[in-house]
Design a protein that fits this description.
The protein is mainly beta. Helix content is about 0%, strand content about 50%. The protein is built from no helices and eleven strands. Strands 2, 4, 5, 6, 9, 10 and 11 form a seven-stranded mixed beta sheet that branches. Strands 1-3-8-7 form a four-stranded antiparallel beta sheet, with no helix packed on it. A hairpin with a 6-residue loop joins strand 5 (about 45-50) and strand 6 (about 60).
Length: about 120
């Protein structure tokens, strides 16, 4: 069974950090690009970062650039999202997704496999 599972979410104070993990089972994650997406209540889902199969290209949206770092360990079949200096606007459910787009992209329709999400709440 092909599956992506996110973990590492939780409640953190503004300025704090979290590291999200995206673990794959049933397939080799290293054969796919991986994107991280998030959806806040009442908002549409937005792509925030992606990483190519061999990590040669990473992409971030402006609002997380310099604060978030995407990385992957293909030997462990895991992709990470390190999030620093979190603020209340980062509160959302975070999803990872795997796909094989022709170019690095954070468009959700370019991704085929999705996890169930992990909640990140930034609050004092």
């Amino acid at each position: 069974q092909l599956q992506l599972v996110e973990s590492g979410g939780g409640l953190v104070q503004p300025g704090g950090s979290l590291t999200l993990s995206c673990a794959a089972s049933g397939f080799t994650l290293g054969q796919y690009a991986v994107g991280w997406f998030r959806q806040a209540p009442g908002q549409k889902r937005e792509g925030i970062s992606c990483i190519t199969k061999n990590s040669d290209t990473v992409t971030y949206i402006d609002s997380v650039k310099g604060r978030f770092t995407i990385s992957r360990d293909n030997a462990k079949n895991i992709v990470y999202l390190r999030m620093n200096n979190l603020n209340t606007e980062d509160t959302a459910t975070y999803y990872c997704a795997a796909g094989d787009p022709l170019v690095p992209t954070i468009r959700d329709y370019d991704y085929d496999f999705w996890g169930q999400g992990t909640q990140v709440t930034v609050s004092s």
